[in-house]
Amino acid sequence: MSGNKIHLTSLGCPRNLVDSEVMLGILLKSGYEATDQIQEADYLIVNTCGFLEESRKESSLTIEELLVEKKEGAKLIVTGCMVQKSGAKIREQFPAVHYFLGSGDMEKILEAIQAPVPGESVTSARSYLQSGEVPRMLSTPKHYAYLKIAEGCAKRCAFCIIPQIKGKLKSKAPSQVMREFNLLLKQGVHELILIAQDLGDYRKEERVANGLELLLKEMLQVDQTFWLRLLYLYPDEITDELIELIKSDERICRYLDMPLQHINNRVLKAMRRKTSREEIIHILQRLRSEIPGIVIRTSLMVGFPGETDEEFAELLQFIQDHPLDNVGIFKYSEEEGAFSVTLPNPVSEDVKQKRFEALVKMQKKVVKKRNKLYIGKKLQVVVEGYHPESQLLMRGRFYGQCPEIDGQVIINDGRAVTAFGKLYEVEITEIADYDLIGRVIAPVKTRSKLICLASS
Question: What 3-state class would DSSP assign to 247?
């Protein structure tokens, strides 16, 4: 081997990141070294995302840049969703790529980089669920990690092509999930973020109706302090049992990522969503009532085919009447193979943009109003490091902030901080748009009740 240095770029969602960590783990165990310097790397790997047109553009641009920047003789391996969805196209576009791996073929990464001649391995396996025995090298800070419990999707939303890319729902065995869960805890991980295309469907392909709840109960039997964060639960999957679990044990973060997409009944039906406006409002009111301090994140879409001015106005009014803590706002993207491309009355890009800007502006007002309610509160915050803009400031997150996607707690008095990645009690003194600002009072020494924002 002329060199053994690896540079890995992971694009897209946290599920992709877990796959990237598995590839990195396999390579490091085999004697390769990781580097963040492109020019040092003998092998460059890009784990692509092919979900939306924008993500495919980002993937192509990244491949292009790496081909230009890499040193002479270095090999580029391209993996992931975009290879699975648009393999022929990117092979034609980038003939200098050494090897292509499909989204279900991550374990062949060693074979790919050691291949003497260019090639590919793109099997019919469209998703990858590693077993607990397969090495994985965490790329996140040591205090949190993603734990993927399922891949693929049983839903058939009109705008989405994930089932075509990732295939049918496939859940990890609970025993396998628990092996990984315990291993991560043993490594010192404090916050475990459960991820899947759809957590609520966990084990439903096995006809287990309450698979997620059973898994959470098993995790909560572990006598240790940790945070469990749940990403991607649909409104119809918020069961009585799940609500009781969140209420009964503060180790489950009072935080739900619940994709809604819209609130108008006609649009929801056209999107092939399972819930109505009335059901969505009912579950939001119930969550706020039964779980004081719960933080709710969602995603909303503007410009779906046929969306009228009146239907958009209804969405705009909804976020004022039923404030949501964090909202990811997206413009509808026409994806080849999605049912929605067959629908009449497409919305122009100009109108989509105007609606997008109007919703963003309104949500910013909503967040500012909600964040003001934290002023004067004391929250348990995991302090993660210095603020990128100044070493005089620190940054952290409380239970209502997910890494990478939500705001943060900016700490302007961190004199009591002795180590990063630990919990501290922080008094919130002011806000800055999506972020909270506060001062550290003292370390959190024992497992104690999470201090939540009063229901509002």
Answer: helix
Q: Any idea which residue has 């090639």 for tokens?
A: 119
Distance CA 336, CA 265 (A): 25
**Number of Cβ atoms within 10 Å of the Cβ of 320:** 12
Cα–Cα distance, 231 to 430 (Å, whole number): 28
Calculate the alpha carbon distances from 104 to 47, 59, 149, 293 in Å. Answer: 12, 18, 15, 39
In the prediction, which pLDDT does 451 show?
Answer: 40
Helix (H, G, I), strand (E, B) or coil at 421: coil
Backbone region of residue 102 per phi and psi (left: phi > 0; alpha: psi in -120 to 50; beta: other values) = beta
Backbone angles phi, psi at 59, to 5 degrees: -60, -45
Question: What residues contact residue 290 under an 8 Å CB cut-off, 6+ apart?
Answer: 243, 247
Q: Which amino acid is at 85?
A: K
pLDDT of residue 393: 94
Instruction: Indicate whether 76 pLDDT > 70.
Output: yes
* Distances from the Cα of 329 to the Cα of 257, 301, 357, angstroms: 13, 6, 9
pLDDT of residue 129: 62
416 Cβ partners below 8 Å, 6+ apart? Answer: 424, 440, 441, 442, 443
Backbone dihedral region for residue 188 (phi beyond 0: left; psi -120 to 50: alpha; all else: beta): left
For residue 183, count CB atoms less than 10 angstroms from its CB and return exposed for 0-12, middle for 13-18, buried for 19 or more. Answer: middle
The candidate with the shortest Cα–Cα distance to 422, out of 132, 190, 180, 238, is: 190
Q: Could you give the CA distance from residue 425 to residue 446 in angstroms, rounded to a whole number?
A: 11
| Total number of residues shown for the chain | 456
Please give the pLDDT value at position 131. Answer: 58
